[in-house]
Amino acid sequence: MIKIILCIIQTLCQQHTLLLFEGHTAGSRYSHTGGGSNYLCLPEDPQWKNYIDGDQSSGAIYGVEYQLDGSNSAMFSTTNNGGTSLYNYPVPCAVCYVGGRSTILMIPARTQCSDDWTTEYGGYLASAHISHQRTSYICLDEAPEIAVGDTAKNQGRLYPVDVRCGSLPCSVYVDNRELACVVCSK
Question: What are the helix (H) ranges across the chain?
Fold first, then answer.
């Protein structure tokens, strides 16, 4: 039987999963043109191999912070952050083990899994801002947490994803509406 590792932007794993580690969401700096295109969950206690101190003109990875303020944060529950504004706070993450399932699927623009699938969590589709460098789309839990760290460093940035209809039919994909998402397993 195949075992699945599930990375979530949250530090709480669901009841039927096992927490492997908590960490910090990281990715390329929002204004850089190169580097990785997806977000990673870096563990709180990194292990190192050989390294050279100082800038080596190589790739770089930065912590990611929420860019959720005003109207684009109102849709999120404050259950897991004590009512604190998410704006400019670091984004935590967790890697959870899901045993006995062979498929994990993030479905954008859905709030429920098919009847024969298990819902791992739901939330809102998120990525970098459209004027920044590309990142992978992720499903941000609907009740985000805040990580420990300095605020407002403007390194990596995470935003909800709005629909731009046109090629997508405007009759069903409402322009400027944030997309929901769900993570399902089977």
Answer: none
Q: How many domains does the chain have?
A: 1
Whether 112 is in a domain gets the answer yes
Q: 108, 111, 67, 66: which is closest to 90 by C-alpha? A: 66
Half-sphere exposure of 65 (CA within 13 A, CB side): 17
Q: 10-27, pLDDT tens digit by residue?
A: 677 877 788 877 888 888
In a domain, 11, yes or no: yes
Inter-residue contact 159 to 129 (CB < 8 Å): yes
Rounded to the nearest 5°, which phi and psi values hold at 71? -70, -30
Residue at 49 is within a domain: no
Q: What Å distances lie between residue 161 and 40, 69, 72, CA to CA? A: 18, 14, 10
pTM, entire model: 0.71
